[in-house]
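[SOLVED] Need 3D model of a two-part complex

Original post:
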Amino acid sequence: MRRISRAKALRRIRLSLFFIWALLFACLFIMPTLLTFTNSFMSETELTSNYGSVLGNVAGGSSYMSKSVNLKVIPDIVSFRQYFTVLFQSPEYLLKFWNSMILTLPIVAGQIAIAALASYGFYRCRGKVKSVVFFSYIILMLMPYQVTLVPNFIVSDTLGILDTRWAVILPGLFTPLSVFILTKSMRRVPYGAIEAARLDGASEFKIFRKICLPMCKNALYSVIILTFIDNWNMVEQVLVLLSDAEKQPLSVFLSQINSGEVGVAFAVASIYMIPPILLFLHGEESLIEGIAYQGSVKG
Amino acid sequence: MKKHSYKSIKERAVSWLYILPSLAGVLVFYVIPFGLIIYYALIDNVANKNFVGLDNFRALFKNSAFLIASKNTLTFSLTTVLLAVVLSLLLAIILDSKIPGKSKFRTCFLSPMMVPTASIILIWQVMFSFNGSFNSFVSLFGLEPVDWMKSDYSQLVIGLLFLWKNLGYNMILFMSALSNIPKDQLEAAEVDGAGELKRFFKIKLRYLSPSLFFVLLLSLINSFKIFREVYLLTGQWPYETLYFLQHFMNNTFENLDYPKLSAAAIVMSLVIVIIIGIIFFLEDRFGKDVEE
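Solution:
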């Protein structure tokens, strides 16, 4: 009897230790995002006096500037001024935001459509050739930009689309990660359901659309989220394939505005993370399921 | 019999029809140009097209920028990948226990992955520059302030950013593996008097091994992508220890030196294929007994 209660006590201690660790980690993980967001409501003067010595060369020299920075979570006075500036007074930020959209959305839509078709093909196809092709997809999926950008660049150069949006969009359509995740989730569709539909005289496309796609709903959503954030965050492709500054997305442009206007930079940074965060909060369950489908590389 | 084989051929053709759009794109944008790369790597320049054998590769291995970039990439990857695997497993174990507020914690841990890197570099700069808050923190312990991004610790700072962004994803992979471990085996072991650690190493780790290899591979690949963070924080010419392979490639792209680019791409893809091969081999060797 006593031993059981002792084990129970030990377990309780362990749990509280775990809880404290989790709390600590959670604070660390949430901090940068939260700070960026709350600091975006600080007035330009407050930001300058807090971070002036780091983020440097601010125009108004007269304002007080502390020598070391003063990282603050909550602003002294909540100000919407910089949001007003970003949204209504300087069209360049909105233009870059639009650039991000116009690159990301076609890639997400196209890639999902192409990958969904391909994953159905990989699901119903058997045989050696298919295994080899699928394995090549895995290898390609694991290749970093350092490698894949060279072929992308050569093709864009040959097709004469270098420095246009197509140079980024077209290769982006065929990124194999979504094919990989969707094929893995298709495998959970029971083959019997498909056989039955076939006996009922359903066409192949109807089987794909009415049986397989609905069953992979979560994986599809998760692939949409993953593709969206990956492309919303793009830097490498842009630097190599789209050097025309007019067409570059906000993800690259943000690093260039932080020296001049700190307040605006924080506001733009916050606006920029809103779409992926909303998508994440809405689809978290599906996202987790989709990530879990990857399980292991093989099989 | 003949009818059957006709049917199976048709069956296959339909499958390939579905794969076709994707396969065509992959061939056009990745595979066929890769063939061209092999050709480019063997000639002196695009104008003369003289066959020079392996000269480009020899030149590459004598190129100091390439060597520094490789060394930096390798040291960065090795350290952060190990940390990423261990820490994300730790997080998964914490969340696998019965602590309250589990799903809230999971959201917290996963959220960095959805924050665009460009959005949080401001905070990173505020924390790690010479006058930054991390130095104020350090000076509380009487230590000298350091300009973190321009010191030999710069890889650590970037590593922190890498871990912050990637731990959540890995953690999810581990969590799903942990939840797939058959409970009866764990309970049986507990009844037999196996302690917490023994249960972990004898049972859990065995079921975790496929995910372990996957996380290893994924983290490794992601660590090659660290250029993004470095570029946004420090621009095209960072402190020497932060000069990674993608920097080398970008600077070579600017000169349009096709043979050099191609040789570098081939070397890197070979290294990655070898790494994948090793991980697959290890998985076959040590992960076999869990596959049903």
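Edit: The two ends of chain B are 34 Å apart (CA to CA).
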